[in-house]
Every structure is written in structure tokens, then in C-alpha cells.
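Input C-alpha cells:
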């Protein structure tokens, strides 16, 4: 089934201005202009982020797909489980409630260091509440995981997605600085209309 609507979810402290989000937006517009593209700025609250995402795609057809990077990969997993759609996960956060607990307090965004937000203690509980268990349809998941990720453990990421199509990179980094060579595989998996 061809993807007609594509959602991109950025990671913690990131934004629609990330290199990967901008590159995907440009390529989708250039090569698949008929595909609906949405890359929202996600609020710091995980509950508010998921509410915004699910409301934003509520009237999207079953031909939607989602791409998520890091924390966005965690959210993308939630979306894929809820909607039964395809998801591409880029170094996805697997235990964000555990991993982000140390970031409680004031944070800055990567792409605008002057922009600040407060990561509240309650957000950790919100992340825990969003954990969605075993994959209902692992064949709908394509995970690109870098063994060289300096933030997340590639073994945990791999173990979280059994049965999914996984591209395990020998090196790389958390940002997937070498994202370009993987775009064609990502497009092929999504079968963009």
C-alpha cells in the first residue's frame, strides 16, 4: 500500500529544523509532491505531544506512515501501534522515561540555543504511560540503528523491535550524520505515492 500522508517526529530538544527533517521535507516535496507532509514542533510534555500528533492525523487515511528520530522514534512506535501504519525509526528511544529523567529542569533546543523549555518531573510519568508493549505488526517497522550511537544503546534498540526490518550500522552516531545513504531504503520501505 502506497504512503500518501507522511508524518515526521523529531527528537528531544530537536525541531523541524533538524538536518534529517529538512532533508526529508525537501526530498518528499521534490520527488513526491502529492504526499501530504507534516513535521510539527512537538511540545515538551509527552502527553501533550501525543495528543497533538493523534489529533493532527485523526482524519488521515490508512495510507499514512510515520518517521521518528530518537524520542520521535518512541512516539512513532506509539502511532504505528495505534494506527497500524508503517514506521521508520531512526535510532529510536526505547526507555525514554529512564533515560530522560536526568534531564529534568531547564533545557535549550539544539537549533535555537536561545529557546528554553522546562522538562518537568511529571513528564517522566507521561513517558512511562505511553510505553506500548510488544509490536502488533513488526513487519510495518523499519529501524535504522547505529552501533556508534553515543546516546542510546544499539543493543536495547535492536532488542525492542524483534521481527522488524532492521538496518544495523557498524559505526554512525546518534544524529545519523551519515543519513543520506539510507534515504533510498527508507523511501522504498514507505512506498511513497
Amino acid at each position: 500500500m502506497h504512503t500518501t500522508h507522511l508524518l515526521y517526529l523529531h527528537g528531544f530538544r530537536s525541531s523541524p529544523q533538524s538536518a534529517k527533517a529538512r532533508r526529508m521535507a525537501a526530498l518528499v516535496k521534490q520527488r513526491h509532491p502529492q504526499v501530504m507532509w507534516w513535521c510539527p514542533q512537538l511540545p515538551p510534555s509527552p502527553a501533550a505531544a501525543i495528543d497533538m500528533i493523534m489529533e493532527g492525523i485523526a482524519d488521515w487515511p490508512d495510507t499514512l506512515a510515520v518517521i521518528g528520530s530518537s524520542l520521535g522514534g518512541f512516539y512513532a512506535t506509539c502511532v504505528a501501534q495505534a494506527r497500524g501504519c508503517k514506521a521508520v525509526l531512526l535510532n529510536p528511544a526505547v526507555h525514554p522515561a529512564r533515560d530522560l529523567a536526568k534531564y529534568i529542569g531547564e533545557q535549550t533546543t539544539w537549533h535555537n540555543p536561545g529557546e528554553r523549555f522546562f522538562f518537568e518531573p511529571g513528564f517522566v510519568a507521561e513517558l512511562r504511560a505511553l510505553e506500548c508493549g510488544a509490536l502488533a505488526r513488526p513487519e510495518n517497522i523499519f529501524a535504522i540503528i547505529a552501533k556508534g550511537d553515543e546516546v542510546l544503546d544499539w543493543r536495547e534498540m535492536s532488542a525492542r523491535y524483534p521481527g522488524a526490518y532492521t538496518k544495523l550500522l557498524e559505526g554512525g552516531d546518534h544524529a545519523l550524520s551519515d543519513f543520506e545513504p539510507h534515504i533510498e531504503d527508507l523511501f522504498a520501505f514507505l512506498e511513497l505515492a
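Residues 5-190 form a domain with the Rossmann fold fold (CATH 3.40.50.1820). The chain has one domain: 5-190.
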